[in-house]
TrEMBL record:
<dbReference type="InterPro" id="IPR036628">
    <property type="entry name" value="Clp_N_dom_sf"/>
</dbReference>
<keyword id="KW-0677">Repeat</keyword>
<dbReference type="GO" id="GO:0006508">
    <property type="term" value="P:proteolysis"/>
</dbReference>
<keyword id="KW-0378">Hydrolase</keyword>
<protein>
    <submittedName>
        <fullName>Clp protease</fullName>
    </submittedName>
</protein>
<keyword id="KW-0645">Protease</keyword>
<dbReference type="InterPro" id="IPR044217">
    <property type="entry name" value="CLPT1/2"/>
</dbReference>
<dbReference type="Pfam" id="PF02861">
    <property type="entry name" value="Clp_N"/>
</dbReference>
<dbReference type="InterPro" id="IPR004176">
    <property type="entry name" value="Clp_R_N"/>
</dbReference>
<dbReference type="GO" id="GO:0008233">
    <property type="term" value="F:peptidase activity"/>
</dbReference>
<feature type="domain" description="Clp R">
    <location>
        <begin position="2"/>
        <end position="180"/>
    </location>
</feature>
Amino acid sequence: MFDRFTKGARAAVVMAQEEARALRHDHVGTEHVLLGILAIDRGPGAAALASLGVGFEPARAYVAGLGHQHDDALDADALATVGIDLAEVKRAAEESFGPGALDRSPKPFQAGHIPFDPAAKKSLELAVREVVHRQDTEINDGHILLGVVGAEPNPATATLRALGVEPDAVREAVERELPHQAA
């Protein structure tokens, strides 16, 4: 399958893995694929995102926070059931030991292969289907982006929505950017 990827599409997939690693995530998800497309910044997918005002830095900031807010809320709720106020514990710890005293230590660096999660795999499968449907000869970042938004709901579409962009708008923008086959 990867032999049909353009250089830009291959680079976006490699960057997705690098972003997952840089964020110390243990898998490559659709959110990392989205970041890979934005980081490479070439091809119809990147052009479509740029036309919608989606930038790498805001998307990365949102993805970096995925998972952490939910975990903290669950921790606070669990502790509250036994009468412990997590916010008060954090305040007291920071007062005694300094800011960030209870912050989680970063996950260890993960060298080597980082697996793609099921949604990311599905998005790549949908990209291939899109190429076949359109009778295109190669897979570019636009096809990958169509696969990502086609595999919703997922963290990438949540990221796009958080940035004020609906998946349907992404589909339309990609369709405008993809080269059209002669009939």
